[in-house]
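Bit of a strange request maybe. I'm writing a small parser for structure token strings and I need a real example to test against, not something I typed by hand. Could someone generate the tokens for this chain?
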Amino acid sequence: MNCSHAHEEITGILTQDVAASSQLQAHLESCPECRHHWQDQAIEQWTSRMLQVPVELVSQVVDCLRPIFKPVKN
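Reply from user aminoacidic:
Good idea to test on real output. This should exercise your parser:
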């Protein structure tokens, strides 16, 4: 799996409640950039859904929250 496909699958998982494939799981184990992308996208989704932040403010709130969340390391 390449990063582009991983990003597409991550979007599907976070927006459509699709299960992660074994290929994505293997890719995430070896790709720190995609793990970071996953974490960033998850924070954005959580911010907009759980905190019910208006869409136009999500990026500002995420920027404030990002230092709280430590990057996932392997």
